[in-house]
Protein backbone atom coordinates (compact mmCIF):
# COMPACT_ATOMS: atom_id res chain seq x y z
CA UNK A 1 0.00 0.00 0.00
CA UNK A 2 1.27 3.44 -0.93
CA UNK A 3 -0.08 6.83 0.08
CA UNK A 4 1.50 8.49 -2.97
CA UNK A 5 1.36 8.18 -6.72
CA UNK A 6 4.07 5.91 -8.12
CA UNK A 7 5.02 8.77 -10.46
CA UNK A 8 6.64 10.30 -7.37
CA UNK A 9 9.25 7.53 -7.47
CA UNK A 10 9.90 8.24 -11.14
CA UNK A 11 10.52 11.89 -10.37
CA UNK A 12 12.85 11.09 -7.47
CA UNK A 13 14.82 8.73 -9.68
CA UNK A 14 15.04 10.93 -12.78
CA UNK A 15 14.99 14.56 -11.65
CA UNK A 16 17.98 14.69 -9.35
CA UNK A 17 20.46 17.55 -9.37
CA UNK A 18 24.06 17.85 -8.21
CA UNK A 19 25.37 20.56 -5.90
CA UNK A 20 28.84 21.19 -4.55
CA UNK A 21 29.07 21.28 -0.77
CA UNK A 22 32.49 21.84 0.73
CA UNK A 23 34.16 20.20 -2.24
CA UNK A 24 31.96 17.13 -2.52
CA UNK A 25 29.16 16.37 -4.95
CA UNK A 26 25.77 15.95 -3.24
CA UNK A 27 22.95 14.29 -5.17
CA UNK A 28 19.83 16.31 -4.38
CA UNK A 29 16.48 14.54 -4.60
CA UNK A 30 13.47 16.73 -5.45
CA UNK A 31 10.18 16.99 -3.56
CA UNK A 32 7.62 15.20 -5.76
CA UNK A 33 4.80 17.58 -4.83
CA UNK A 34 6.62 20.86 -4.16
CA UNK A 35 9.03 22.93 -6.24
CA UNK A 36 9.48 25.93 -3.94
CA UNK A 37 12.70 26.22 -1.97
CA UNK A 38 12.69 25.89 1.81
CA UNK A 39 9.42 23.99 2.04
CA UNK A 40 8.58 20.66 3.63
CA UNK A 41 7.32 17.83 1.48
CA UNK A 42 3.49 18.15 1.56
CA UNK A 43 3.02 14.51 2.63
CA UNK A 44 5.63 14.93 5.35
CA UNK A 45 3.89 18.07 6.60
CA UNK A 46 0.52 16.30 6.58
CA UNK A 47 1.94 13.48 8.71
CA UNK A 48 3.27 16.01 11.21
CA UNK A 49 -0.07 17.76 11.47
CA UNK A 50 -1.97 14.50 11.94
CA UNK A 51 0.35 12.53 14.22
CA UNK A 52 2.86 14.91 15.77
CA UNK A 53 0.84 18.03 16.48
CA UNK A 54 2.26 18.28 20.01
CA UNK A 55 5.75 18.57 18.55
CA UNK A 56 4.86 21.57 16.42
CA UNK A 57 2.87 23.70 18.81
CA UNK A 58 -0.40 21.76 19.13
CA UNK A 59 -2.12 20.52 22.26
CA UNK A 60 -0.45 20.72 25.65
CA UNK A 61 2.00 17.94 26.32
CA UNK A 62 1.25 15.27 28.87
CA UNK A 63 2.81 15.51 32.29
CA UNK A 64 6.48 14.63 32.36
CA UNK A 65 7.37 11.13 33.65
CA UNK A 66 8.34 11.15 37.30
CA UNK A 67 11.33 8.80 37.15
CA UNK A 68 14.18 7.94 34.81
CA UNK A 69 12.67 4.52 34.13
CA UNK A 70 9.30 6.05 33.23
CA UNK A 71 11.00 8.64 31.04
CA UNK A 72 12.96 6.00 29.11
CA UNK A 73 9.80 3.94 28.70
CA UNK A 74 7.86 6.95 27.40
CA UNK A 75 10.61 7.81 24.91
CA UNK A 76 10.75 4.23 23.66
CA UNK A 77 6.97 4.13 23.24
CA UNK A 78 7.08 7.33 21.15
CA UNK A 79 9.64 6.04 18.65
CA UNK A 80 8.92 4.66 15.21
CA UNK A 81 6.05 5.14 12.82
CA UNK A 82 3.47 2.66 11.43
CA UNK A 83 4.61 1.87 7.90
CA UNK A 84 3.60 -0.43 5.07
CA UNK A 85 4.79 -3.66 3.50
CA UNK A 86 5.49 -2.90 -0.18
CA UNK A 87 6.70 -6.35 -1.17
CA UNK A 88 5.36 -7.98 -4.32
CA UNK A 89 6.99 -11.40 -3.84
CA UNK A 90 7.00 -13.92 -1.02
CA UNK A 91 9.60 -13.07 1.61
CA UNK A 92 10.75 -15.70 4.07
CA UNK A 93 11.47 -14.58 7.62
CA UNK A 94 13.76 -16.43 10.00
CA UNK A 95 14.91 -15.66 13.54
CA UNK A 96 17.74 -16.85 15.74
CA UNK A 97 19.11 -15.77 19.09
CA UNK A 98 22.85 -15.44 19.49
CA UNK A 99 24.98 -14.87 22.58
CA UNK A 100 27.98 -12.55 22.57
CA UNK A 101 29.78 -11.81 25.85
CA UNK A 102 26.68 -12.90 27.80
CA UNK A 103 24.43 -10.54 25.80
CA UNK A 104 21.45 -12.09 24.02
CA UNK A 105 21.24 -10.69 20.50
CA UNK A 106 18.33 -11.36 18.17
CA UNK A 107 19.09 -11.77 14.48
CA UNK A 108 16.23 -11.63 12.00
CA UNK A 109 16.75 -12.37 8.34
CA UNK A 110 14.60 -11.92 5.26
CA UNK A 111 14.98 -13.20 1.72
CA UNK A 112 12.87 -13.87 -1.38
CA UNK A 113 11.72 -17.49 -1.47
CA UNK A 114 12.02 -17.68 -5.26
CA UNK A 115 15.83 -17.34 -5.19
CA UNK A 116 16.52 -19.36 -2.05
CA UNK A 117 18.63 -21.88 -3.97
CA UNK A 118 21.07 -19.18 -5.07
CA UNK A 119 23.94 -19.61 -2.61
CA UNK A 120 25.86 -16.49 -3.64
CA UNK A 121 23.39 -13.76 -2.86
CA UNK A 122 24.52 -10.37 -1.58
CA UNK A 123 23.70 -9.55 2.03
CA UNK A 124 22.80 -6.47 4.01
CA UNK A 125 22.99 -6.21 7.80
CA UNK A 126 20.70 -3.50 9.17
CA UNK A 127 21.13 -1.72 12.52
CA UNK A 128 18.02 0.16 13.61
CA UNK A 129 18.05 3.64 15.13
CA UNK A 130 16.56 4.89 18.38
CA UNK A 131 19.05 7.11 20.14
CA UNK A 132 20.93 4.08 21.57
CA UNK A 133 18.14 3.70 24.15
CA UNK A 134 15.21 2.65 21.98
CA UNK A 135 14.02 1.84 18.51
CA UNK A 136 12.98 -1.57 17.27
CA UNK A 137 13.71 -4.14 14.60
CA UNK A 138 9.99 -4.06 13.84
CA UNK A 139 9.99 -0.41 12.77
CA UNK A 140 12.51 -1.15 10.00
CA UNK A 141 11.26 -4.63 9.14
CA UNK A 142 9.28 -3.51 6.07
CA UNK A 143 12.25 -1.49 4.83
CA UNK A 144 14.49 -4.55 5.23
CA UNK A 145 12.00 -6.82 3.46
CA UNK A 146 11.65 -4.45 0.53
CA UNK A 147 15.43 -4.19 0.24
CA UNK A 148 15.68 -7.99 0.20
CA UNK A 149 13.28 -8.11 -2.75
CA UNK A 150 14.78 -5.23 -4.73
CA UNK A 151 18.39 -6.41 -4.29
CA UNK A 152 17.53 -10.13 -4.37
CA UNK A 153 19.51 -10.36 -1.14
CA UNK A 154 19.49 -11.79 2.34
CA UNK A 155 18.85 -8.91 4.73
CA UNK A 156 19.64 -9.26 8.41
CA UNK A 157 18.14 -7.08 11.16
CA UNK A 158 19.93 -6.93 14.53
CA UNK A 159 18.06 -6.74 17.84
CA UNK A 160 20.95 -5.44 19.93
CA UNK A 161 21.32 -4.38 23.58
CA UNK A 162 19.93 -0.98 24.52
CA UNK A 163 21.18 1.61 26.97
CA UNK A 164 20.88 2.54 29.78
CA UNK A 165 20.48 -1.09 30.87
CA UNK A 166 23.44 -2.01 28.65
CA UNK A 167 25.54 1.14 28.02
CA UNK A 168 28.51 1.56 25.65
CA UNK A 169 30.24 -0.55 24.48
CA UNK A 170 27.51 -3.23 24.71
CA UNK A 171 25.48 -2.13 21.69
CA UNK A 172 28.58 -1.57 19.57
CA UNK A 173 30.01 -4.96 20.49
CA UNK A 174 26.67 -6.68 19.85
CA UNK A 175 26.44 -5.18 16.38
CA UNK A 176 30.07 -5.82 15.50
CA UNK A 177 29.80 -9.43 16.70
CA UNK A 178 26.58 -10.00 14.76
CA UNK A 179 28.10 -8.64 11.55
CA UNK A 180 31.20 -10.80 12.03
CA UNK A 181 28.98 -13.81 12.73
CA UNK A 182 27.18 -13.27 9.42
CA UNK A 183 30.53 -12.94 7.63
CA UNK A 184 31.98 -16.04 9.27
CA UNK A 185 28.87 -18.06 8.40
CA UNK A 186 28.33 -16.70 4.90
CA UNK A 187 28.28 -20.14 3.29
CA UNK A 188 25.65 -21.44 5.70
CA UNK A 189 23.46 -18.42 4.99
CA UNK A 190 23.87 -18.81 1.24
CA UNK A 191 25.49 -15.42 0.77
CA UNK A 192 28.61 -14.13 -0.95
CA UNK A 193 31.16 -13.18 1.73
CA UNK A 194 32.55 -10.58 -0.66
CA UNK A 195 29.19 -8.82 -0.95
CA UNK A 196 28.19 -8.17 2.65
CA UNK A 197 26.93 -4.66 3.29
CA UNK A 198 26.08 -2.96 6.56
CA UNK A 199 23.83 -0.01 7.23
CA UNK A 200 21.59 1.76 9.68
CA UNK A 201 19.66 4.89 10.44
CA UNK A 202 20.41 7.62 13.00
CA UNK A 203 21.98 5.85 16.01
CA UNK A 204 22.11 2.81 13.74
CA UNK A 205 24.12 4.92 11.30
CA UNK A 206 26.45 5.79 14.15
CA UNK A 207 26.85 2.09 14.95
CA UNK A 208 27.39 1.34 11.25
CA UNK A 209 30.24 3.84 10.96
CA UNK A 210 31.76 2.58 14.23
CA UNK A 211 31.50 -1.10 13.21
CA UNK A 212 33.22 -0.27 9.92
CA UNK A 213 36.03 1.47 11.79
CA UNK A 214 36.39 -1.46 14.19
CA UNK A 215 36.32 -4.02 11.36
CA UNK A 216 39.05 -2.08 9.56
CA UNK A 217 41.13 -1.79 12.73
CA UNK A 218 40.82 -5.50 13.53
CA UNK A 219 41.09 -6.67 9.92
CA UNK A 220 37.77 -8.55 9.97
CA UNK A 221 35.07 -8.82 8.76
CA UNK A 222 35.58 -7.61 5.21
CA UNK A 223 32.66 -5.39 4.27
CA UNK A 224 31.66 -4.43 0.74
CA UNK A 225 29.64 -1.30 1.50
CA UNK A 226 28.37 0.88 4.34
CA UNK A 227 25.07 2.75 4.21
CA UNK A 228 24.76 5.66 6.63
CA UNK A 229 21.21 7.00 6.84
CA UNK A 230 21.14 10.38 8.64
CA UNK A 231 23.89 9.13 10.98
CA UNK A 232 25.06 10.79 14.18
CA UNK A 233 28.84 10.81 13.76
CA UNK A 234 29.92 13.09 16.57
CA UNK A 235 28.62 13.49 20.11
CA UNK A 236 27.94 16.45 22.43
CA UNK A 237 30.35 19.26 21.47
CA UNK A 238 33.17 17.06 20.14
CA UNK A 239 34.24 18.08 16.66
CA UNK A 240 37.16 18.25 14.26
CA UNK A 241 38.69 21.13 12.33
CA UNK A 242 36.45 22.29 9.51
CA UNK A 243 33.17 21.03 10.96
CA UNK A 244 30.49 23.61 11.75
CA UNK A 245 26.87 23.37 12.83
CA UNK A 246 24.59 26.37 12.27
CA UNK A 247 20.94 27.02 11.53
CA UNK A 248 22.21 29.26 8.74
CA UNK A 249 22.91 26.13 6.69
CA UNK A 250 19.16 25.42 6.47
CA UNK A 251 16.99 27.33 4.00
CA UNK A 252 13.54 27.71 5.58
CA UNK A 253 10.48 29.40 4.14
CA UNK A 254 8.86 31.93 6.48
CA UNK A 255 5.49 30.23 6.73
CA UNK A 256 6.99 26.90 7.86
CA UNK A 257 10.02 28.17 9.76
CA UNK A 258 8.39 27.58 13.17
CA UNK A 259 7.87 23.92 12.22
CA UNK A 260 11.21 23.34 10.54
CA UNK A 261 13.18 24.81 13.44
CA UNK A 262 11.72 22.08 15.65
CA UNK A 263 13.03 19.48 13.19
CA UNK A 264 16.68 20.49 12.95
CA UNK A 265 17.84 20.31 16.57
CA UNK A 266 19.43 16.87 16.27
CA UNK A 267 23.18 17.11 15.95
CA UNK A 268 23.37 20.62 17.38
CA UNK A 269 26.53 20.81 19.57
CA UNK A 270 25.59 20.79 23.26
CA UNK A 271 27.38 20.00 26.51
CA UNK A 272 27.51 16.38 27.58
CA UNK A 273 25.71 17.34 30.79
CA UNK A 274 22.73 18.58 28.74
CA UNK A 275 22.42 15.54 26.47
CA UNK A 276 20.03 13.05 28.05
CA UNK A 277 20.38 10.44 25.30
CA UNK A 278 24.18 10.51 25.46
CA UNK A 279 24.29 10.32 29.25
CA UNK A 280 22.25 7.12 29.04
CA UNK A 281 24.53 5.70 26.36
CA UNK A 282 28.00 6.43 27.76
CA UNK A 283 29.02 6.65 31.40
CA UNK A 284 32.36 8.40 30.84
CA UNK A 285 32.23 11.92 29.38
CA UNK A 286 35.65 11.40 27.75
CA UNK A 287 34.13 8.71 25.54
CA UNK A 288 32.69 11.43 23.32
CA UNK A 289 36.22 11.59 21.87
CA UNK A 290 36.35 7.83 21.23
CA UNK A 291 36.01 7.30 17.45
CA UNK A 292 33.81 4.27 18.12
CA UNK A 293 31.38 6.74 19.73
CA UNK A 294 32.14 9.75 17.51
CA UNK A 295 33.35 8.32 14.16
CA UNK A 296 34.02 11.84 12.88
CA UNK A 297 36.97 11.93 15.30
CA UNK A 298 38.76 8.90 13.88
CA UNK A 299 42.43 9.60 13.15
CA UNK A 300 41.97 8.15 9.68
CA UNK A 301 39.02 7.22 7.49
CA UNK A 302 41.18 5.45 4.92
CA UNK A 303 40.50 1.90 3.83
CA UNK A 304 36.86 1.94 4.87
CA UNK A 305 34.15 0.32 2.72
CA UNK A 306 32.58 2.32 -0.09
CA UNK A 307 29.68 4.32 1.24
CA UNK A 308 26.19 5.54 0.57
CA UNK A 309 25.15 8.41 2.82
CA UNK A 310 21.62 9.78 2.94
CA UNK A 311 20.43 12.88 4.73
CA UNK A 312 17.16 14.77 5.04
CA UNK A 313 17.12 18.46 4.15
CA UNK A 314 15.47 19.47 7.43
CA UNK A 315 17.43 17.30 9.83
CA UNK A 316 20.28 18.65 11.94
CA UNK A 317 22.14 15.40 11.27
CA UNK A 318 22.30 16.35 7.59
CA UNK A 319 25.38 18.39 8.51
CA UNK A 320 26.91 15.29 10.12
CA UNK A 321 26.06 13.25 7.02
CA UNK A 322 27.60 15.55 4.45
CA UNK A 323 30.68 16.38 6.52
CA UNK A 324 31.36 12.68 7.06
CA UNK A 325 31.05 12.20 3.29
CA UNK A 326 33.75 14.86 2.94
CA UNK A 327 35.97 12.99 5.41
CA UNK A 328 35.51 9.73 3.50
CA UNK A 329 36.20 11.50 0.21
CA UNK A 330 39.38 13.08 1.55
CA UNK A 331 40.51 9.61 2.68
CA UNK A 332 40.00 8.16 -0.79
CA UNK A 333 36.82 6.21 0.00
CA UNK A 334 34.31 5.82 -2.83
CA UNK A 335 31.02 7.41 -1.81
CA UNK A 336 27.63 8.71 -2.92
CA UNK A 337 25.72 11.16 -0.76
CA UNK A 338 22.04 12.00 -1.16
CA UNK A 339 20.10 14.95 0.23
CA UNK A 340 16.34 14.44 0.28
CA UNK A 341 14.67 17.82 -0.03
CA UNK A 342 11.65 18.51 2.14
CA UNK A 343 12.30 15.54 4.43
CA UNK A 344 12.95 15.39 8.17
CA UNK A 345 14.68 12.91 10.44
CA UNK A 346 13.61 9.23 10.45
CA UNK A 347 11.87 9.34 7.07
CA UNK A 348 12.55 5.68 6.30
CA UNK A 349 10.19 4.84 9.18
CA UNK A 350 7.43 6.20 6.90
CA UNK A 351 7.80 3.62 4.13
CA UNK A 352 4.60 3.70 2.10
CA UNK A 353 3.66 7.14 3.42
CA UNK A 354 6.42 9.12 1.68
CA UNK A 355 8.02 8.18 -1.63
CA UNK A 356 11.51 9.11 -0.43
CA UNK A 357 11.75 6.04 1.83
CA UNK A 358 11.05 3.73 -1.10
CA UNK A 359 13.39 5.68 -3.34
CA UNK A 360 16.28 5.28 -0.90
CA UNK A 361 15.59 1.55 -0.76
CA UNK A 362 15.85 1.48 -4.57
CA UNK A 363 19.15 3.38 -4.48
CA UNK A 364 20.66 0.97 -1.95
CA UNK A 365 19.45 -2.07 -3.89
CA UNK A 366 20.89 -0.74 -7.15
CA UNK A 367 24.25 -0.18 -5.46
CA UNK A 368 24.20 -3.72 -4.08
CA UNK A 369 23.52 -5.14 -7.54
CA UNK A 370 26.62 -3.36 -8.83
CA UNK A 371 29.02 -4.70 -6.19
From TrEMBL:
Tell me the Pfam families matching this sequence: Abhydrolase_3
Identify the residues that the record assigns to the Alpha/beta hydrolase fold-3 domain, covering every copy.
Answer: 124-348
Among its keywords, does the record have Hydrolase? Answer: yes
**GO MF terms, alphabetically ordered:** hydrolase activity
Q: Which InterPro entries does the record associate with it?
A: AB_hydrolase_3, AB_hydrolase_fold, GDXG_lipolytic_enzyme, Lipase_GDXG_HIS_AS
The alphabetical list of record keywords is: Hydrolase
Instruction: Classify the source by domain of life.
Output: Bacteria
What PANTHER family does this protein's entry cite? AB HYDROLASE SUPERFAMILY PROTEIN C4A8.06C, ALPHA_BETA HYDROLASE FOLD-3 DOMAIN-CONTAINING PROTEIN-RELATED
The entry's family comment says: Belongs to the 'GDXG' lipolytic enzyme family.
**How is this protein named in the record?**
Alpha/beta hydrolase fold-3 domain-containing protein
User: Which species expresses this protein natively?
Assistant: Clostridium folliculivorans
Amino acid sequence: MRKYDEKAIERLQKETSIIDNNGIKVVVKPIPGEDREGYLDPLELDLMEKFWATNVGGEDKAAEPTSKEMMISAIRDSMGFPNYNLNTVEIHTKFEELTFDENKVGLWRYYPRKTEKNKKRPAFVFIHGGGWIGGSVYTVENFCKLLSELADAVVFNIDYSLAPEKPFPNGLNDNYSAVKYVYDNAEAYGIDANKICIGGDSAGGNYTAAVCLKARDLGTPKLAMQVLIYPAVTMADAKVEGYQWSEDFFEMCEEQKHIIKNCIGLGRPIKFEDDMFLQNYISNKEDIYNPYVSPMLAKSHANLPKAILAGAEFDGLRLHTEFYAKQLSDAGVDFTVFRYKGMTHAFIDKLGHVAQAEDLCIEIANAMKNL
